[in-house]
Design brief:
With about 500 residues, the chain is of the alpha+beta class. Helices cover about 45% and strands about 15% of the residues. It has a domain at about 315-495: Sulfite Oxidase, Chain A, domain 2 (Alpha-Beta Complex). It has helices at about 1-5, 25-50, 80-85, 100-130, 130-135, 140-155, 170-190, 195-200, 205, 210-235, 240-250, 260-280, 285-300, 330-335, 360-365, 390-400, 425-430, 490-495, and strands spanning about 55, 65-70, 345-350, 355-360, 370-375, 380-390, 405-415, 420-425, 435-440, 445, 455, 470-475. It has a five-stranded mixed sheet. A hairpin with a 5-residue loop joins strand 5 and strand 6 (about 380-390). The two termini are about 55 Å apart. The protein binds the ligand Nc1nc2c(c(=O)[nH]1)N[C@H]1C(S)=C(S)[C@@H](COP(=O)(O)O)O[C@H]1N2 and molybdenum atom. Molybdenum atom (MO) binds near residues 323, 377 and 463.
């Protein structure tokens, strides 16, 4: 053992030495990364808490999860995905509480964007200088040296460091994994969870389906948490002054120059940590609007990709989570008892030819069937075969006027805080081949639970945009005057964005 340690002291002597110190941009990016990560991780945990189960299979059948922090799904009663959300303390999640995924997502995605920009700038800068040689192992010697470092740490007899010019083996490997593996894996698996991207990728989106992506995203997250904890502890126990001088002053000295800046950085991150949740709860609408300005437009762009992924019968999920607030009016009860023979779908607003359709009228029209994946914002997914009428056929019949820009779907059901559930779509998105008004699910008439008599399927959006128990469709030029003016019930009440293909 001693021979081994003597031969491999911890830092690979054959590794190139970096002599340009720690430039100001590196110090700044390192700090920003820490600040951004705090938001991303906390908001990410909040998102996970909205469906606190992880699976390797796309169908999310209860009992098949490999990880959960929630009881097993109760049997013998309706248990919706919203019932399943877990409450988080406000110091942990952003903004804490229960089912606050709408706000958490604005934080997660907006700060993600800043983090990615910081990361891209970092990649460019390190490869434009010699700094990349700190992070990328260029000699196999790094492996025995990493082992040697681990042994020495475990023996509490720390190796001599020369981190001004070269990191030790373990350090280099863990930095490499973090910067060049975990970060890109997190970004890709994050994006793969979106309906627009997943559905666009065909086979790839199906093999690396949402639950696989979500599970890998989680594993990558645990790496980050482990790394940040270990890395943070190491700052303190391997030479606090030298380390903080490198990090915050860019100097090699045994003095205290960097330390005050390090403390300041910790105070800033601490303050941001302390303020994030109360601020978000107090200014929820502002967080929603800022998020929309920062990343909403990028999400909106992906509505232009025609969703393509269609699956086969073998992919149909044995279980399809139900979600939402059921209708409970006398009117709806009557419709159920007459088997929807008195049901009329009213289509009007800014159209040349307003229509009323009975269910029989709709069933007499051209029928389309499609097997697709449903992506709920909360994180679960499920595959079903849907049968119904193409929205583009309805559009051709009612002829929206030139000034009409949005299609509004109204529900027979109320939302969870009372008031009509409704949602707004861009008209062009209703012309996609897979946008249908479904009256069938898996070959059977649509059940009450899943939206009878009629629900929307719009395969490049998240589930909440697919209104169930549709009563009427209206074409409008603007949605400012509807509800709280955000483009839908969950947009108004849960601060979601009205264009949510990602
Ligand atoms: N009227 C109405 N439609 C709704 C909802 C709702 O609460 N009310 N929930 C939405 C959400 S969040 C999802 S994920 C899907 C769930 O559809 P499912 O119950 O068929 O799974 O319906 C959407 N349509
Ligand atoms: Mo949902």
């Amino acid at each position: 053992m001693q021979d081994f340690i003597k031969r491999y002291p911890g830092t690979a002597q054959t590794a190139p030495s970096v002599d340009s110190g720690f430039p100001w941009w590196l110090q700044l990016q390192h700090f920003l990364n820490m600040l951004f990560m705090m938001f991303i991780i906390r908001a990410g945990i909040q998102i996970l808490a909205d469906h606190p189960r992880l699976y390797w299979n796309r169908d999310c059948t209860p009992g098949t999860e490999w990880f959960r922090f929630q009881h097993p799904v109760p049997q013998g009663r309706i248990w919706t995905a919203k019932d399943d959300a877990v409450t988080l303390p406000s110091w942990l999640g952003i903004p804490g509480l229960r089912h606050t995924i709408g706000l958490a997502r604005w934080w997660h995605f907006s700060i993600d964007l800043l983090w990615v920009l910081n990361g891209v700038a970092f990649y460019i800068m390190i490869f434009a200088t010699d700094q990349w040689l700190r992070l990328v192992p260029v000699t196999w010697d790094v492996i025995p040296n990493a082992l040697s470092t681990a042994i020495q740490y475990a023996s509490l007899n720390f190796p001599t460091e020369s981190s001004w010019t070269r990191y030790n083996g373990l350090q280099q490997l863990s930095y490499f994994v973090t910067v060049f593996i975990a970060a890109p894996v997190s970004i890709t698996t994050g994006l793969l969870q979106s309906p627009a991207i997943s559905n666009r990728l065909g086979l790839l989106g199906s093999v690396l389906n949402r639950q696989v992506a979500r599970s890998v995203h989680f594993i990558s997250f645990t790496w980050f948490v482990f790394f940040i904890l270990a890395h943070g502890i190491m700052v303190f126990i391997t030479g606090l002054r030298e380390n903080t001088n490198h990090m915050f002053a860019g100097v090699k000295s045994p003095g205290w120059v960097g330390f005050p800046f390090f403390v300041l950085a910790l105070v800033l991150v601490g303050l941001a940590w302390w303020a994030a949740s109360p601020f978000t709860i107090r200014h929820a609408r502002l967080v929603q609007k800022t998020g929309r300005i920062m990343v909403g437009w990028i999400k909106g762009l992906s509505e232009w990709w025609e969703p393509t992924a269609e699956l086969s019968e073998a992919d149909i999920s044995p279980h399809f989570w139900p979600n939402g607030t059921m209708p409970n009016s006398a009117e709806y009860e009557h419709l159920v008892s007459c088997k929807f023979s008195d049901y009329r779908l009213r289509v009007g607003g800014m159209v040349e030819s307003p229509h009323e359709f009975s269910l029989a009228d709709l069933k007499a029209m051209r029928k389309q069937q499609q097997i697709t994946t449903h992506f709920c914002i909360q994180g679960w997914s499920g595959v079903a075969e849907w049968g119904g009428v193409k929205m583009s056929d309805i559009l051709d019949m009612v002829k929206p006027m030139p000034g009409a820009r949005y299609t509004v779907f109204y529900s027979l059901a109320e939302g969870s805080d009372g008031g009509c559930y409704y949602d707004v779509h861009e008209i062009f998105n209703m012309r996609h081949r897979l946008s249908i008004l479904a009256y069938e699910m898996n070959g059977e008439p649509l059940s009450v639970l899943h939206g009878a008599p009629l629900r929307l399927r719009c395969e490049n959006e998240l589930g909440f945009k697919m209104v169930k128990w549709i009563s009427a469709i209206e074409f409008v030029s603007d949605f400012k005057d509807l509800g709280a003016g955000q483009g839908g019930y969950n947009e108004d009440h849960e601060f979601y964005g009205y264009r949510m293909p990602i």
